[in-house]
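Z., the sequence and structure:
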Amino acid sequence: MELKDSCLTTGELIDKLQQIWNIHVTKAEVIAESTALCRKIFSEENDYFLKEFQDSYSQERARLEGRICKLLLNNRLPVSEIIPSTDGKDYAVIKGRIFQLQHYVNGTSPTHNSLKVKTLCEASRYLGKIHSALRLSKLPPLFGDSWISKFNENESISFYKETQSKVSAMATDEYTKQKVLCDLDFRITLTKHMDALSKYFKNLTYTPSHGDYTPSQLICKGDSIQKIIDFSNLHSVPAVLELVRFYYLASDDMKCTDCLNSDSLKTYIKTYLEEFKLTNQEIMSIPYVAAYYLGRNRYVYREYSDTGNIQALKRSAHLTEISRYFYNNAEEISYRLSK
């Protein structure tokens, strides 16, 4: 859910930045809407990046993010530089919400499926370095046994069939309608094989990690990564899952799975392995782990069926194409990776 409204007026915000961080603000601009409200802060000294978190973001999580970012900076990783307040904290609490101030970094976040091999491998190397630097940290787990056990096959199939009914009743062209219904049939088929796929999550290496490593969490100039941002979702996760998830969201090869270059995937994984080791069994499990994780996202097409949003339609179609690719070609991909 997006955070759209601030708890402060612009005047209050400027006063608080002066009081808490001792900076003299000349202007504040909202630059993004996500689970946090983000602003670029212009001041007489420097430009800054201010995040106002949802009420659910706790002081404990803010302290954790500050500690982990410092650890990664000490390991010479280009991560968010959180600016302490005048009382030494990595955050401030204003009207019950957490605020965090960082140095502003010029650059842009890449769009999904836009990265060439050079930048992909740079991102892969940084992910391996993050996993290596955090290996002794204690973070709560994501995607463990309890997550797997919560999956309900019958409930998911019913959800897809309900989505099919909604799509069938939509006033849209017949080609689009049949394409969506066919994709949802595939999702039902995939759902029936989820129990078999879940076994590939057994014996995976779980590592403290970013938790949401995607192209939108990078700031780039040209094909070079300047910063890795937003460590607010820090968790212990299966290393191979975060590795393959970034690939299918970032690689320009995955714009169209018919054009996938397996050599670029292998180069991407080899670069990661130079920084953080995985077993051969884990590497071979990558396509199965991807198919299972993608199969858990049952909301594909639901936003489109509820709103008719064309961008939601395109996102859902692309994610389904990726799901189908990993599921139908898992054995071949696994064999190639084993070499």
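The first strand starts at residue 25 and ends at 33. The beta strands are 25-33, 36-43, 47-53, 92-94, 97-103, 206-209, 218-221, 224-228, 235-238.

Let me know what you think.
H.
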